[in-house]
Amino acid sequence: MLRIRFCRKAVLAGVTAAFMIGGASAQAETTLDKIRSQGVIRIAFTNEAPFAYAQPNGELTGVVIEVLHHVFDDMGVKDFDGGLTTFGGLIPGLKAGRFDLVTSSIYIKPDRCKQVAFVEPLYVLGDGIAVKTGNPRKIHSYADVAADSAIKLAYTVGGTGITDNAKAMGVKAEQLVAVPDDHSGYAAVQAGRVDGFANPAVILETELRALKDPNVERASPFEQPVENGKPRYGFASFAVRLEDQDLLSELNKRLTTFRTTPEFTAIMNKYGFTKDDMVPPGVTTAKICAG
Length: 291
Description:
Blueprint: E1 3-6, H1 9-22, H2 24-27, H3 31-38, E2 40-45, E3 53-54, E4 60-61, H4 63-73, E5 79-84, H5 90-95, E6 101-102, H6 110-113, E7 116-118, E8 123-125, E9 127-132, H7 142-147, E10 153-156, H8 160-168, E11 176-179, H9 182-191, E12 196-200, H10 201-211, E13 216-218, E14 226-227, E15 230-231, E16 234-236, E17 239-241, H11 245-258, H12 262-270, H13 285-290
């Protein structure tokens, strides 16, 4: 049974000390070797349902946690050390060695591919916008936002997929308002500081249901941005450090096999993903990174 716990400084300090004592042999150990020998992997998450989030008892759950359970189970990895961070802190924390793997809804993007190594895509993510009940600004697309320069749209700092889509549809930079986290985005809508809060649709739906605020709703219908005849969807996955190619290879081997199983489909459905959110045939990380 997989056990999941939060990172604590004492745990990480102990690991660091073990490396220092080990000397040259420890330095030669790869991240994959370390994960296998210790039975622990340090994962970064942003507390976003339905991806990876903490339950009241402190354990992590979510679609990516369940997928990781199946991927790592046969490797003998029985513990996850969950490191809570902001979205903007995911890649810097990974590169700095605070985490071994990044979870959450991080989009595979060419500029990010230069910084970290992405596992093959897990799912497709479209956009959604939270607005005041009744949608007073009649926002049903990014084009609607672009058509009225007075409209302000919030987004979570670090999540460039949303802002890229908005700008591609003509939204001006001065219309976009960065907030530190999702909670701040909904609070900004509630207070009238912005007219909408944009987020991946499956996150938006999950969070609005949990919020249970009758004064905030999801803009419906919402038109996904289309550029050159193709919808601008985001493809999301895990990420590891560029130098951890053996870990990347192992994850890809296990994940691509697991994606074809009924168990994978069942997990996705459990957390609200449908067949429309599955990765289309022929879409690979290499192609996405190439632009």
